[in-house]
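User: Structure tokens for this complex, please. No commentary.
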Amino acid sequence: MASFLQWTLSLGLLFMVSETMGAAPRKPVDVPFGRNYVPTWAFDHIKYFKGGSEIELLLDKYTGTGFQSKGSYLFGHFSMQIKMVPGDSAGTVTAFYLSSQNSEHDEIDFEFLGNRSGQPYILQTNVFTGGKGDREQRIYLWFDPTKAYHSYSVLWNLYQIVFLVDDVPIRVFKNLKKLGVKFPFDQPMKIYSSLWNADDWATRGGLEKTDWSKAPFIATYKSFHVDGCEASVQAKYCATQGKRWWDQKEFQDLDAAQYRRLKWVRSKFTIYNYCTDRVRFPNVPPECKLDRDI
Ligand SMILES: *[C@@H]1O[C@H](CO)[C@@H](O)[C@H](O)[C@H]1NC(C)=O
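Assistant:
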């Protein structure tokens, strides 16, 4: 009897272990904007609500605006809750990204391309490593991002960079150093967000222009928590490297359920993937060879 109990117990434990593989990132808590962020430019185009726990970015024909994190970070989970510009947002771009400071820079980008009323936004993502980008992917979202807050986040550790929308992985960039692909690991990044006019390319490739009679265009933000290893801009490593929650086994790869959701997004919502663009890249970029299995 005792051994049977032991057996079922350890079986249960085994299941628990395999169940937790590939966990969803921790939920950020709401903190006021000013705790972790400062405006970057056009300070008068940012409005604060509820003690700074919600903000609006305004774009008019004079300027857009943006903000950045006070700290820089090496690895972690970086998220933002955003409600995109409603109504006619054609020509506008709302961005949320991480970027290192120097010339051979690393960057992890979310860019939300606006559209005419009732027409769908596009979410474009990109990854720069060692100054090299050209890794655009574009998807439609499975909801209207102007109607409510949704969370957009990046999980970044030594093993992978995961782009998530409401905890659904929409893109993974694995550390494929062994294939000769640079992976961001030794340059801290800051978190940025901005709203600006890009009607030369954003909507239907630049055909749809911003209608300034609809200005100001307003994107709304909340949840300014930052969960990362804070490091000085010049730091080469994180002092607590390997010991934080995002470093642990369950965050080093997606699990089967997460891969299924990623596959769902890719098959249903993909508009463009640089990995399959043989005109721009006659030779398949090395990191894309893995991409084909997803
Ligand atoms: C805007 O709407 C048009 C028409 O539905 C669509 O082709 C396009 O992909 C949409 N998004 C952007 C950002 O152009």
